[in-house]
Design goal:
By secondary structure, this protein is α/β, with parallel strands linked by helices. Among the domains are: about 160 residues, Rossmann fold (3-Layer(aba) Sandwich), CATH 3.40.50; about 80 residues, no CATH class; about 60 residues, no CATH class. Helix content is about 50%, strand content about 15%. It is built from 21 helices and 13 strands. The chain has a six-stranded parallel β-sheet, sandwiched between helices. Strands 7, 8, 9 and 10 form a four-stranded antiparallel β-sheet that branches. A three-stranded antiparallel β-sheet has the order 11-12-13. Helix 4 packs antiparallel against helix 21. It starts with a strand and ends in a 9-residue tail after the last helix. The model has no long low-confidence stretch (mean pLDDT about 95). Bound molecules: 6-O-phosphono-alpha-D-glucopyranose and manganese (II) ion. Manganese (II) ion binds next to loops.
């Protein structure tokens, strides 16, 4: 089996390769092709992978290329994990929004809209190329904003593209642990859009254990989301929101924390990664050790401003050792390749799952995966407050898709203005001006 990784010079790739190294089963991935537009980053990550593979006799062979068609040809699976505009682009997304007093975050609010506008045209071009060069391949999309980007790619690839995110898995695991249940056998009644979903039930041996958790402030205080949102708010909601809903429910506090922060997340990561890739250019650097140190620092500071705003303290040790992201990807590939039925929370086309959205809308819900792909299973309907947010944000995503297709600035203004976290059309207009001035990747917004 051959896996092609688009964005193969990306920092988190060694997590995926580490998971592949642990897979010795028949039909596993034996060949990994890394594709990136930046040869220097490819070389750096290839060094880390070589360290990881040392002493593993059946380690998947790794090659690298900057030619997209060459990378795609013969692929069974394609991971798409690109970052259009790089971390400098992410930092600009944050800075420009915050200067207008609204949230600038990679996937949420004005920052997410800007990143989506930049990424959708590139993702669609990749999807067209996959459809032409590797029509039988399964595309697993990690590229953020993951739900929107998956929907853009699905216009060309249909059900052959599946979006993944580790935050619902992480939430499920933390909740199961708090309940003393086995995270792998519980069923999670989770639904929404990517980074905009709610856990409404946790069935363990046929019984919903979530009410027990919601009734116990001590248990609620024992895991990340409980501390971020507070026991009272979770009880009022009757569900556990994805951690990214912190930006909605505590918008003032998070915007303030971001504005007051010395550096935004994007700026911090930019510096951190620049240092790492520069280090990798020095021949003597122990690649894996440098990577792991950098990774640990990234994990420890994840959502630090939110935790600070909420007084939620440090992350739990168990949440620091990653495992979510790459394990979901591996589980998904295995289920497809071996027709081994598995239930995973994924980003796929809605069909009839959430009645408030149309069939083509990409949603994040539990899916049954087998050799035919990922099929949403039925979940409880969204509560009115959740349906409201989901419909509003899906309408924003559709404006982004329309802007990308037409090059229309009006559609781009609408995307920002209709976002629940952008509070004025005037602000939306200024955002479009500022973002198009800052990002060459938005030059297509001409009309
Ligand atoms: C979580 C999110 C991802 C995000 C990742 C890294 O896992 O679900 O979408 O890419 O965190 O976030 P960071 O702020 O470190 O880039
Ligand atoms: Mn995510």
């Amino acid at each position: 089996m051959r896996l092609t990784v688009l964005g193969g010079g990306g920092f988190r790739l060694p997590l995926v390769y580490g998971a592949l190294l642990g897979d010795h089963a028949e039909g596993r991935i034996t060949r990994v092709v890394l594709y990136d537009t930046d040869a220097g980053r490819l070389a750096a990550i290839a060094r880390v992978l070589a360290d990881q593979a040392a002493g593993v006799p059946d380690a998947p062979e790794v090659t690298a290329t900057t030619d997209l068609d060459e990378a795609l040809r013969g692929a069974d699976f394609v991971f798409s994990a690109i970052r259009v505009g790089g971390l400098a682009g992410r930092a600009a997304d944050e800075r420009i929004a915050l200067a207008e007093g609204v949230l600038g975050q990679e996937t949420v609010g004005a920052g997410g809209v800007a990143y989506g506008l930049r990424t959708v045209p590139v993702a669609e071009e990749i999807a067209r190329r996959v459809a032409r060069v590797a029509p039988g391949a399964w595309v697993i999309n990690f590229t953020n904003p993951a739900g929107l980007v998956t929907e853009a790619m699905a216009r060309h690839l249909g059900g052959r593209v599946i979006g993944i995110c580790d935050s619902p898995v992480g939430l499920g695991r933390r909740v199961a642990r708090a309940l003393g249940a086995d995270p792998d056998t519980a069923f999670y009644d989770y639904a929404g859009l990517n980074h905009l979903g709610w856990l409404r039930g946790v069935r363990v041996a046929g019984r919903d254990e979530l009410p027990r958790l919601l009734a116990d402030p001590g248990l609620l205080g024992s895991f990340e989301e409980g501390r971020l949102f507070g026991a009272d708010w979770l009880r009022a909601l009757g569900a556990i929101p994805n951690e990214y809903l912190h930006y909605y429910y505590f918008n003032r506090e998070t915007v303030r924390a971001y504005r007051e922060a010395e550096r935004t997340r994007g700026a911090f990561l930019r510096e951190q990664q620049d240092r790492f890739y520069a280090e990798m250019e020095r021949p003597g650097t122990p690649a894996l050790a440098a990577w792991d140190r950098t990774r640990a620092e990234r994990e420890a500071t994840y959502m630090a401003h939110n935790r600070e705003a909420a007084g939620a303290g440090e992350r739990e040790a168990a949440d620091l050792e990653s495992g979510g992201y790459e394990q979901v990807a591996l589980a998904l590939m295995r289920a497809i390749a071996h027709d081994r039925r598995t239930t995973l929370v994924l980003n796929v086309r809605n069909g009839g799952t959430l009645s408030v959205l149309d069939a083509d809308a990409v949603v994040e819900v539990p899916c049954l995966v087998d050799a035919n792909g990922a099929h949403p299973v039925s979940v409880s309907p969204l509560a009115d407050h959740a349906a409201g947010l989901v419909c509003a944000v899906k309408a924003v995503e559709r404006e982004v898709l329309a802007a990308a297709e037409s090059g229309s600035r009006d559609r781009a203004v609408a995307a920002f203005a209709l976002h629940p976290l952008v509070d004025s059309v005037t602000v939306a207009r200024r955002l479009v001006e500022a973002y198009t001035a800052a990002h060459p990747g938005l030059a297509y917004l001409r009309r």
